[in-house]
Design a protein that fits this description.
TPR-like_helical_dom_sf, Serine Threonine Protein Phosphatase 5, Tetratricopeptide repeat, 79% helix, globular, mainly alpha
Length: 346
């Protein structure tokens, strides 16, 4: 049995904030509490409030502000000799590094966060940090390396009855199944994640699960309209919380659904929107995926063959440098789809 979802990153005097609080509201309140803690010389409280500031900035796509905030939170935690708070700050920094595509840095910070979490006796930050490591590997396509860790973290989350973390693990495992072509298993896992998130009132987790279900309905069943309905429902949840990154991925997925349905003009417009959103928040993985969709849509709309070839070759080189294996394979498939020489990108 799962209880209501909670946000462990809202700490100190911010524990009353909901997992579904608008990020704009979170930022305003956390910044006010942070200033008060700094004025009164309370570094431990400043570290906890600074964590919420960092996470709000990150999820709003305000990368530079997020970078400054997690580092300030870490310094305050270190001054307070609060090991667990130091771990949470490093977790935030590692998560931001992954969002920016700095995968080696993300791993270093998340490994340190897990170590400090264990040393500080905070099982939650340790779990979140290990989950961050698992997600970093999954995003890069290292499914064999991180599949077992995802399963381990799912079992731990189920045992503790922690809805939000259970939903995250289910969605990660589902995404790996989907990317390997096991659509039925992926659908079942996304469906369970959506049900748990709904019962636990976890709007963020629910929006991501709906996105996953929409993807499967589109690619497996060709059910375009139902997929778009689910994405509209997910988008409403994203907007209610100002989930900038999730909203951009929603728009990118809507583009995927339209592309598969042969609605190339709609797909082009959606990919252009998503690309603009990803670039604004300095999220290279999302930008690369939107570029890929846009290139394919423009090709279907009559773009010159040589221009499509050049764009896909450029994108392939970008993904080779970043180490995004699954996305790189998607580019190769696109090159084959349009009869292009895949060797020119190597």
């Amino acid at each position: 049995m799962y209880g209501k979802a909670f946000a462990p990153e809202y700490q100190g005097s911010l524990t009353t904030l909901s997992v579904n609080s608008s990020l704009v509201d979170v930022l305003a309140e956390a910044a006010e509490r942070l200033r008060a803690a700094e004025r009164s010389g309370q570094p431990a409280e400043a570290a906890r409030c600074g964590l919420a500031v960092a996470e709000a900035h990150r999820r709003l796509g305000q990368v530079r502000d997020a970078d400054r905030a997690w580092k300030a939170s870490y310094r305050a935690a270190r001054a307070a000799k609060d090991t667990a708070a130091m771990a949470w700050a490093l977790w935030s920094g590692g998560t931001l590094a992954r969002q920016r595509g700095a995968f080696p840095l993300a791993r270093r910070l998340l490994e340190l966060a897990a170590e400090l979490g264990e040393r500080g006796g905070d099982v939650v930050v340790r779990g979140y940090s290990l989950a961050g490591l698992a997600e970093t590997g999954r995003i890069q396509g290292d499914y064999t390396a991180v599949g077992r860790l995802h399963e381990q973290l799912l079992a731990e989350a189920r045992r503790r009855g922690e809805a939000r973390h259970t939903v995250w693990a289910l969605e990660g495992i589902a995404q790996m199944h989907r990317n390997q072509g096991d659509y039925d298993s992926a659908y079942g896992l996304f469906e369970e994640a959506a049900e748990i998130a709904d019962r636990a009132d976890d709007r963020r987790g629910h929006a991501w699960a709906l996105r996953g279900l929409a993807d499967i309905l589109s690619v497996r069943d060709g059910d375009t309209e139902r997929a778009l309905e689910l994405l509209s429902e997910a988008e409403a949840g994203c907007r209610s919380m100002n989930l900038t990154s999730a909203l951009a991925y929603n728009h990118k997925m809507r583009g995927n659904v339209c592309y598969r349905a042969g609605r190339y003009t709609e797909a082009r417009d959606l990919y252009e929107l998503a690309l603009k959103e990803f670039c604004a928040m300095s999220e290279p993985r999302g930008a690369a995926l939107a570029r890929l969709g846009l290139a394919k849509s423009l090709a279907r709309l009559g773009r010159e063959h040589t221009e499509t070839a050049a764009e896909l070759a450029s994108l392939a080189k970008t993904l080779d440098r970043s180490g995004l294996k699954h996305a790189r394979e998607m580019v190769t498939r696109a090159q084959r789809e349009f009869g292009l020489d895949t060797e020119t990108a190597r």
